[in-house]
């Protein structure tokens, strides 16, 4: 660990980021989907602390092992709906900071404008969590 986690040590940061992350829930998005998205993005970003955390949350929510373990290969397995696959594609492209019209339009077929807003906020928030944790070399608790 390079420094104490800034989210924990900077006054107001934890509440602000928790509030931002929680705002997606107010859009009617399925909570398990949001956690799967957080897991997928955390895998992409190599954030061990977040991979551990979101995997445990998914197991606690009784998400099947197949859906948890296969999230990195979501395109190749039958465990996800077309809507979930559209959300994964959006998450991957947002994480790479370029969202094609094709990916956006596919997501828009499955989610309302509020839900798309929730997805983009959730994806942005987990990317922030990941970047802070990776930059400061936070470890699995």
TrEMBL record:
Residue intervals of the Carboxymuconolactone decarboxylase-like domain: 11-93
UniProt GO MF annotations: peroxiredoxin activity
Signal peptide: 1-24
Superkingdom per UniProt: Bacteria
Keyword set includes Electron transport: no
Cross-referenced Gene3D superfamilies: AhpD-like
Pfam family, one: CMD
Keyword entries, A-Z: Oxidoreductase, Peroxidase, Signal
PANTHER family to which the protein is assigned, alphabetical: 4-CARBOXYMUCONOLACTONE DECARBOXYLASE FAMILY PROTEIN (AFU_ORTHOLOGUE AFUA_6G11590), BLL7811 PROTEIN
NCBIfam families noted in UniProt: ahpD_dom
Name of the protein in question: AhpD family alkylhydroperoxidase
Organism: Lentzea atacamensis
């Amino acid at each position: 660990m390079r420094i104490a986690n800034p989210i924990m040590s900077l006054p107001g940061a934890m509440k602000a980021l928790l509030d931002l992350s929680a705002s997606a829930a107010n859009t009617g998005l399925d909570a398990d989907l949001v956690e799967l998205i957080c897991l997928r993005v955390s895998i992409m970003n190599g954030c061990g602390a977040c991979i551990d955390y979101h995997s445990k949350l998914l197991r606690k929510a009784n998400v099947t092992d197949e859906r948890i373990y296969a999230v990195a290969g979501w395109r190749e397995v039958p465990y996800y709906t077309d809507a979930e696959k559209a959300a994964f594609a959006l998450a991957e492209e947002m994480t790479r900071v370029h969202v094609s019209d094709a990916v956006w339009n596919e997501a828009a077929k499955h989610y309302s404008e509020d839900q798309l807003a929730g997805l983009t906020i959730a994806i942005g928030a987990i990317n922030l969590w990941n970047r802070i944790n990776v930059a400061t070399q936070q470890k699995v608790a």
